[in-house]
Design goal:
Order of helices and strands: EHEHEHEHEH
CATH class: Alpha Beta
CATH architecture: 3-Layer(aba) Sandwich
Number of domains: 1
Shape: globular
Distance between the termini: 15 Å
CATH superfamily: Response regulator
CATH topology: Rossmann fold
Number of helices: 5
Structural class: alpha/beta
Strand order of the largest sheet: 2-1-3-4-5
Radius of gyration: 13 Å
Bound molecules: magnesium ion
Strand content: 15-25%
Helix content: 25-40%
Number of strands: 5
């Protein structure tokens, strides 16, 4: 089975940073998809096999919390491992995210080690 990841962030620069860090974790992925907002992310999930999602919170069109909610409604909470990438780690945001099915969160700026924490079962 292919092992694919999805990075969701409205900043192209941030997607590249997340991508580079993800590649530096040592966990290998067949493909790493990129989406600029929640709407794009949902489209990718519809047509592709994805196991891990790293998602920004603040995005236009559909933000990270709305995306979580939509994934929960559509696929339930067990299908994807979803890690939120936050700027401030604001307690409210994190709490809402965890209640909506996120597996955890990492705070920008982060290191590959912070990501590995959530990828251990894939090593
Ligand atoms: Mg953003």
């Amino acid at each position: 089975m292919a092992r694919n990841a999805l990075i969701v962030d409205d900043s192209g620069v941030m997607r590249k940073i997340i991508m580079r860090n993800l590649r530096n974790t040592g966990v290998s992925f067949d493909h790493i998809f990129e989406a600029g907002d929640g709407m794009e992310a949902l489209k990718i999930l519809e047509g592709n096999d994805v196991s891990v999602i790293f998602s920004d919170v603040n995005m236009p069109n559909m933000n990270g919390l709305e995306l979580l909610q939509k994934i929960k409604e559509t696929y339930g909470t067990g299908k994807y491992k979803i890690i939120m990438v936050t700027t401030d780690g604001a307690e409210d945001t994190v709490k809402t995210a965890m209640e909506s099915g996120a597996s955890g969160y990492i705070k920008k700026p982060f290191k590959p080690e912070d990501m590995v924490e959530y990828l251990k079962d894939l090593l």
